[in-house]
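Minimal example, chain plus inosinic acid.
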Amino acid sequence: MMMHSDCEKILLSQEQLKERIARMGKKISTDFDESEPIIAIGILKGSVIFMADLVREIEKSVELEFMAVSSYGASTKSSGAVKILKDLDIDISGKNVLIIEDIIDSGITLSYLKEMLLKRNPKSLKICTLLNKPERRKADVKVDYIGFDIPDEFVIGYGLDYDNKYRNLPYIGILKREIYE
Ligand code: IMP
Ligand code: MG
């Protein structure tokens, strides 16, 4: 696979992603009880590719649900405000919920979502993210499963976008600054 010309460099290759996600799936499989399904909630649209690969590595029954929240649009910095664009269409009370995110940056999106979903009384609620930028955290939120801690760079690919582009790149790349500056 040739690197996209808007990429500065490849941060995580297809092979690295595949290997890590397989291990995350195994860990999740052992952490959850067999008796009840896992309600996996993917946060649209960035988590879709990660979610598709992750759930196929989980050897338990998994139901797929989705939510959409406001994103950055054509900016690389969070506005701080979170808006629900698409809510769940199921009741999660008494269920084991696993939120699936592409990346946690400031943590504002997830801490808001977590509080909101906890009010609906799930049996348990865990958070799983492919990428984590620890340096940029503003909101304190406990993350149960992290694929990779990454440096403070704007990344694209494997579901992550800049202005809705690059989601289909099969690797995680660092976007060239000249594209967004
Ligand atoms: P937070 O609320 O700041 O944690 O924002 C998380 C959301 O910001 C993610 O779900 C992404 O949509 C977006 N985001 C943050 N950093 C990046 C990045 O480096 N590349 C692409 N999207 C990002
Ligand atoms: Mg986004």
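The CA atoms of residues 94 and 123 lie 4 Å apart. The chain has a mean pLDDT of 93.
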